[in-house]
Design brief:
single chain, mainly alpha, 86% helix, 0% strand
Length: 116
Amino acid sequence: MEHPAFTLSALCTLGGIMGYALNIIFLTSVLKFRKKGSVPSLIGGVSVGLLYGIGGYLIKQNNEYGIHCALSASILLLAAGAPRAFSTKKPVPIALTSIGVLATAYYAKKYKDFYL
């Protein structure tokens, strides 16, 4: 059960870092300006990735708060991606929202199985 949390941790962290790095490398050097959305992408991706990583570690250690942490990260990912997905219709926010929906459904089911 910890595998999805570790996978999502890596994906979110890598996505935040890549969003920041590609912005710095491509936009600054080629187009000579910086897009202001890169720092929030870095902070958001690393933060959500850290929450998933902590959740995966706690699940692996059979700590009862692991599912809570992973579910919280999933809800945060869903809440952060949904407004942008509906307003911009761009592929990255739609993918983030889809991942958030699937992860929230998975960890909500696991929470229900263990606690309700």
